[in-house]
Request: fold
Amino acid sequence: MPSPDALRTTRIPLEHGSGAMPAVGFGTLIPDPVATRQAVKTALDVGFRNFDCAERYRNEEAVGEAMQDAFKAGTVRREEVFVGTKLWNTNHRPERVKPAFDASRRRLQLDYIDCYLIHTPYAFQPGDDQDPRDEQGRVIYDSGTTLVETWQALESLVDGGQCRSIGLSDIGLEKLREVVAAARIKPAVVQVESHPYLPEWDLLEFCREHGIVLQAFAALGHALEPKVLDDPAITAIARRVNKTPAQVVLAWAVQRGTAFLTTSTTPRYIQENFEISALPDDAMQEIRDGVTKRVRFNPVVETGVPGFIPRAP
Ligand SMILES: NC(=O)c1ccc[n+]([C@@H]2O[C@H](COP(=O)([O-])OP(=O)(O)OC[C@H]3O[C@@H](n4cnc5c(N)ncnc54)[C@H](OP(=O)(O)O)[C@@H]3O)[C@@H](O)[C@H]2O)c1
Reply:
C-alpha cells in the first residue's frame, strides 16, 4: 500500500503523449467567473496540479487568470501544472479544430495544452451558437463530419507541438474502439462519468489494455440523489479509517487506477478533496463488492447535450 501522502501526488505516465497526469484533478465547471478564479486559486494553494477546462464552460479566461497569478507570484511553475481543455461539439469540422484550440490557449494564457479532449463524440451544427436548436427545440446535429476526421485534426495539433496529448470524453466502448483502431496517435486519456455507483469496470479494463488513462468526472456523484457520499458502505469505511466519505471515494478512484476530477467552490471541501490517503485493501474490496447501486447522473454520453450545464434562457 502506498504511504498516505504519496496517493495525493500520484502521477500517471501518459503512454500516448508526453508527460504524466496527476491523478488528483480539479474540474472548473463553475458558472460564475469570479467564483472560478477563487476556486482555482484555492485549489492551487492546497496542492491540486491538474485542472480540467472546456471552451463550453465559458470561463477559461478566469482559470487562466488564476494560474497566471500563481505563476507570477512564483508559488507554482507552469511545468508543474497539467492543464486539459476540450473541443466543443460545434467545432468538430476539421478546419474548425485548430482555431478552437488556439482560442482556448489564448483564453487560458498558455503556450501549450497538456491534454486536449473531444468533449463529446457528437458533432453539432458548426457555428458560434454552442447550443444550436431547431424550432421544436431539438439539437441540430452535424452529419458533415465523422469522429475519426475530428480525431485526425487533433493528431495534427500534437504534430504542431502545442498539444502534448489528446483524448476523448463522454464516449462509450464501441465508439472508443473505432477511434483507437483508426488512430495514428492513440488517445492518451478518456474522461467519463465514474464513481462507485458507475464504476465502468469494462471501460477501465479496455483503457488499461490500451495504455489509456481513465479520468473520472463527477467522482463524488455531483452531489445528486441518491448521494454516493451517503452510501452506508462508504460512510462505514469513512468512520473506520477516520476520513470523510468524499476522501474515501476519491482514494478509491486513485487506487483502482483512474485519475479523478472533483469540483467545489467551498474552500474546506477543496482542501478535503486533496488530502486523501490510501485505503486498506479490505476497504477497496468492500466498495467493489458492497456498493451495488448503479446510477448515471449525466446523460451527456447518450446525446452530447451536457447534463450539468443549464441551457441559456
Ligand atoms: N466531460 C464532461 O462531459 C464532464 C461533465 C461533467 C463534469 N466534468 C468535469 O468534471 C469536473 C467534476 O465534476 P463534478 O462537478 O460533477 O464533480 P463532483 O465533485 O462529483 O461534484 C461537485 C459537487 O460536489 C460537492 N462537493 C465537492 N466536494 C465535496 C465534499 N468534500 N463533500 C461534500 N460535497 C462536496 C460540490 O459542492 P460545492 O461546489 O457546493 O462546494 C458540488 O456540488 C467538472 O468540474 C468538469 O471539469 C466533465
Remarks:
- The beta strands are 11-13, 20-22, 24-27, 50-52, 82-87, 115-118, 166-169, 189-193, 213-217, 259-262.
